[in-house]
Design a protein that fits this description.
Blueprint lengths: L2 H11 L3 H11 L5 H6 L2 E6 L2 E7 L6 H18 L6 E12 L8 E12 L2 E9 L5 E13 L20 H4 L2 E7 L2 E6 L14 H16 L5 E6 L10 E10 L3 E10 L4 E10 L2
Antiparallel strand pairs: 1-2, 2-4, 3-6, 3-9, 4-5, 5-6, 7-8, 8-10, 9-12, 10-11, 11-12
Helix pairs in contact: 4-6
Length: about 280
C-alpha cells in the first residue's frame, strides 16, 4: 500500500468533525440531504474556517437561498473545531442583504469562527456573487451538544440531486386569509430539508419566516434575524408562520414573525426590516 493510501485509511478512521468534513471536500460529497438537494457544496475547510458555493434557482427568493448557505458555512466553521462526539445546533442566525445577484447564478460563501467559549460559538460569513461582489454579511450563534446524533455527522452522505432544488419546492407553502392578528403561511417541510441530525436545517426553516415577512412587508427585508427555539422533523405536521407588520411606512417597513407547530408550540421567532430608497 502506498503512502497516500495509508494516509487516506488513517483519515477515514479519524472521527473528528474536521476529518469528516475534509473527506467530504476530497470526495466531493454532500454533508446532509439539504445540501444534496440544493447543491450546497463544501469546497474548503480548515479548523475554524470554510468555503462553500451554492447555485440560486430562477423564480426562487434570494433571502431563502442565502439563509440555507449561511447556516451551512456558519455551522461548519464551528463544527470544524469540535472534538469527536460533539455536534452543533443553530441558536440564532442574522443576515444583512447588500447585493442582488442575477437569478440562477452561484453564490460563494466563506465562514469563520470568531469566538468559542462555554459551549457556544459565534461565527461570521460573507456571501458573494461570481464576480466577488458582496451579496450578504451573516452572523450565527451555535451551541454544542454531546449525544448519539453526533456520531452520524457526515457518516451517511446522501447522493447529489440531479439538479438543484428550489427552496419553494423543499418547503411547499400556501397563504391563509389575513386576520387582525396578522398574516399566516402554512409550510410543509420536505424530507430533503434535513440536516445531518435528521431535523429541518435552520436556514431552510428560517426561509418560511423570510418568505412570510417578504409577503407582509411587500419587500424583501434587508435586515433579517431569527432565533430557534425547537427543532422540527419533516413529515406530516405543518409549520405555521404568523407575521405582524409593526411599521408599514412609505420608506421604512418592520415586521416580526413566529413559527409554530400544529400544537401551537413556538419553533422560532424572526424579525425583518426593509428600507425603500
Amino acid at each position: 500500500m502506498n503512502d497516500r493510501a495509508e494516509r487516506g485509511d488513517e483519515a477515514s478512521d479519524d472521527p473528528t468533525p474536521l476529518a469528516v468534513l475534509r473527506r467530504l471536500v476530497t470526495e466531493e460529497m454532500p454533508l446532509a440531504p439539504i445540501h444534496a438537494a440544493t447543491h450546497a457544496r463544501l469546497t474548503r475547510v480548515e479548523r475554524g474556517c470554510c468555503e462553500a458555493r451554492m447555485p440560486t434557482t430562477i423564480g426562487d427568493g434570494l433571502l431563502e437561498s442565502v439563509l440555507v448557505l449561511a447556516d451551512f458555512v456558519l455551522g461548519v466553521a464551528y463544527s470544524s473545531s469540535l472534538r469527536a462526539g460533539d455536534r452543533i445546533v443553530t441558536v440564532r442566525l442574522g443576515i444583512q442583504l447588500i447585493g442582488r445577484p442575477l437569478a440562477g447564478d452561484d453564490l460563494y460563501a466563506s465562514g469563520t469562527l470568531d469566538d468559542a467559549r462555554r459551549g457556544v460559538g459565534l461565527s461570521s460569513a460573507t456571501i458573494t456573487d461570481r464576480e466577488g461582489r458582496t451579496v450578504a454579511r451573516c452572523v450565527g450563534r451555535n451551541a454544542v451538544l454531546t449525544d448519539g446524533l453526533a456520531d452520524q455527522y457526515g457518516r451517511t452522505a446522501p447522493t447529489w440531486a440531479k439538479r438543484p432544488s428550489a427552496w419553494r419546492l423543499l418547503m411547499p407553502h400556501r397563504g391563509e386569509n389575513p386576520t387582525r392578528d396578522g398574516t399566516t403561511l402554512v409550510g410543509h417541510p420536505d424530507t430533503a430539508t434535513r440536516n445531518s441530525a435528521g431535523v429541518v436545517q435552520g436556514g431552510a426553516l428560517a426561509g418560511l419566516a423570510a418568505r412570510g415577512l417578504s409577503h407582509a412587508l411587500d419587500i424583501i427585508p434587508d435586515d433579517f434575524a431569527v432565533s430557534f427555539v425547537r427543532s422540527v422533523r419533516p413529515g406530516d405536521h405543518p409549520v405555521f408562520c404568523r407575521v405582524v407588520v409593526e411599521h408599514g411606512g412609505r420608506r421604512m417597513r418592520v415586521g416580526r414573525a413566529e413559527l409554530v407547530d400544529d400544537r401551537g408550540r413556538l419553533l422560532a421567532t424572526a424579525s425583518g426590516t426593509a428600507f425603500r430608497h
